[in-house]
Design a protein that fits this description.
284 residues, alpha/beta, 12 strands, 25% strand, elongated
């Protein structure tokens, strides 16, 4: 009768079993694993023995990604702006995929919408019931390329998020609301993914890429209790991050049958008349 040796559970392995396990060959690596291993070795050799990990994303206040300055010599794609405003902006226009916080005169907002739609783009204005569509049209806006949602209900941010899918520029009036950082991150990421530009006004938005402030500093055309406004002068300040603001002055005046934005030293008029000399200064 054959005798079979039985090793108790948990007992020591036999000499034969140990020898067999020591002589067994490890499984062969696949081609993909070998290529990955070779890449890691090359990276290790090139870095002096250390393989660098992913670069840390700079964070600003409230945990939001900090605005990233444009690389030297690299020009980002931008939306057009009124010509005298362009020298104040870091890239000469509103960079696509960014968020700008705007405060001040609504006339410049109308000018931005007019410039984008007049050049063939599509734009939307959300939560801005006092937006002057007639003024925008006089500045050259294409109203057939401008979507207006004057009353956006209780959640204008959600309406703006939908419009970012098909618009180059969305101007969002927050109505005094404070947007939470988590929600701002979602909308900022969508703007970047769609290469759309978002301008927020009349509220608080955490860590925008750009801050623009425009104040009415004077106007011409009015006499003592009579006359009509011929031009409006704005003092504009543009700031990125915590840097020093770029300051300039813009003038909106009638030229050639429409309202144009010009620099203050450009005093020619389109109707052949001498420019108005009486200027009223608005106290700041």
């Amino acid at each position: 009768m054959p005798v079979t040796s039985v090793r108790p559970a948990g007992g020591p392995a036999s000499v034969a079993e140990v020898g067999e396990s020591m002589t067994a060959r490890p499984p062969k690596a696949s081609g993909a694993q070998l290529r990955e291993l070779a890449q890691l070795r090359r990276a290790r050799a090139a870095s002096g023995g250390c393989v660098p990990g992913p670069a840390a994303v700079p964070r600003g206040e409230n945990g939001l990604p900090a605005p990233v300055a444009a690389a030297t010599g690299l020009r980002r794609e931008v939306l057009p702006v009124p010509s005298p405003l362009a020298p104040l902006l870091p890239d000469g226009g509103l960079v696509k995929g960014t968020v700008t916080a705007y405060t001040g005169a609504g006339s410049l907002l109308a000018g931005l919408l007019a410039t984008v739609t007049g050049s063939g783009g599509h734009a939307a204005a959300v939560g801005l019931p006092r937006l002057g569509l007639l003024a925008a049209a006089e500045m050259g806006a294409r109203l057939d390329r401008l979507a207006v949602v004057a009353d956006a209900g209780r959640d204008p941010v959600e309406v703006a998020a939908v419009l970012l899918d098909g618009m180059e520029l969305v101007v969002l009036g927050l109505g005094g609301a404070i947007v939470a950082p988590a929600r701002a991150r979602v909308l900022t990421a969508k703007a970047r993914g769609k290469a759309a530009t978002l301008i927020v006004t009349s509220g608080s938005w955490p860590a925008p890429d750009l801050n623009v402030e425009a104040k009415v500093s004077g106007y011409t055309g009015l006499g003592t209790g009579s006359g009509r406004i011929r031009s409006i002068t704005l003092d504009v300040a543009v700031r990125t991050g915590t840097g020093m603001p770029q300051r300039g002055r813009l003038v909106a005046r009638p030229l050639g049958g429409r309202v144009e934005w010009t620099a203050p030293d450009n005093t020619a008029t389109g109707d052949g008349n001498a420019p108005e000399r009486r200027e009223h200064i608005v106290a700041s």
